[in-house]
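Dear colleagues,

For the upcoming journal club I promised to circulate an example of a predicted protein-ligand complex. I picked one with magnesium ion because it came up in last month's discussion. The inputs are reproduced below in full, followed by the predicted structure.
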Amino acid sequence: MKMSALFAPTLKENPAEAEVISHSLMLRAGMIRQLSSGIYNILPLGLRSLEKIMNIVRRELNHADGQELLLPALQPGELWKETGRWDIYGPELIRFQDRRERDFCLGPTHEEVITDIARKEIRSYRQLPLLLYQIQTKFRDEIRPRFGVMRSREFIMKDLYSFDRDYEGLKVSYQKMYDAYSKIFASCGLEYIAVRADSGVIGGDVSHEFLIIADSGEEKVMRCPKCLVASTQEISDCPECHAGMEEKRGIEVGHIFQLGTKYSESMKAYFVDQDGKEKPLIMGCYGIGIGRTMAAAIEANHDENGIKWPWNIAPYEIIIIPVKLKNQAGMELAESISQQLAHQGYETIWDDREVSAGYKFKEADLIGFPIQVIVGEKALKNGTLEIKIRSNGKRIECTREQLVSVIK
Ligand code: ATP
Ligand code: MG
Ligand code: MG
Ligand code: MG
């Protein structure tokens, strides 16, 4: 891929509307554009990163026996009236009527829809446990949409729902998801903390939030500097080692809930157990904000020049930069290196533009390619390439033959 063909409208200045660094960098790197308050166009670079996060999520959830499906965003109000949430959810729920004056909403979450499937299709304990998930667009009319895709009104969420025979089963499903989340966030280059949380309007008893520590976080977390025990409650001393707790800010990227029978009772989702008795399904639900995870990854991985993408979620992995303007041999070498690496399975771009080397370096830093391969004077003289590793700024010289081993 040629840089001149890439649709990434970059910006030089920090956009005035961006209050947090991830929002600013996503706009500047040409990843997103606002359409309306809390509603975003996702441009090619943004989508490539989102797709990678979604695929990491899929890999880990499938590995934990999750099965992907796709539910409608458009939901009949009837279902929400059955659980009582039509009245409880408040103005965040986007409601309207169809041409026959029937109530509808745009799904902010999908407990009602999935429980409707469960009550129709799950008859016997033999069908349990069952873990179903989707990656889909959610709608919430947030009172204060802000920070770009971090808190928007339309956003992509992964939501998984677990169905078990009993509370023992629920605990197993819950732990599976807890472990899958740990792997997902680690794969995205994020250090998370899990804290006991309030279940809010989703409901249930036990719930944990997965938070990324960042100054721009909207949640207050108390953390023990010694044993790293964390809590969203105001505790005085650490319950483990009694050291004083530090106050930090956290971004909620994931939230898991043991729902129990809240939805299965109200919507009459029963199954026949081994003892022949009808029992309510025991449910759990598990969300991850995909766009918010991408934003949090930028909050955690950037410097004053731009994004430092963790390899696994970078829109592209490697940029090849010929530095000499109008030098045919340099251009050809860069293109051929790009093609070679692409052939070996890397996602590459080469900067074919007739702009200064300084400008190319600036944009490469801003967009945050994990690896820059610089084709300079030495490359033409004796074949020496310079590799810049974006995450730590290290520069390594190597030959073309050594390239792949250096990148690894
Ligand atoms: P918050 O407290 O930030 O409003 P929430 O507790 O309302 O989030 P959940 O209902 O737990 O959110 O949804 C699961 C996940 O969806 C959240 O952990 C978050 O990652 C993501 N999410 C929630 N609201 C938004 C939003 N407005 N924009 C982007 N992602 C969101
Ligand atoms: Mg919310
Ligand atoms: Mg919350
Ligand atoms: Mg939450």
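Two points we might discuss: The first strand starts at residue 32 and ends at 36. DSSP finds twelve helices and 23 strands in the chain.

See you all on Thursday,
B. R.
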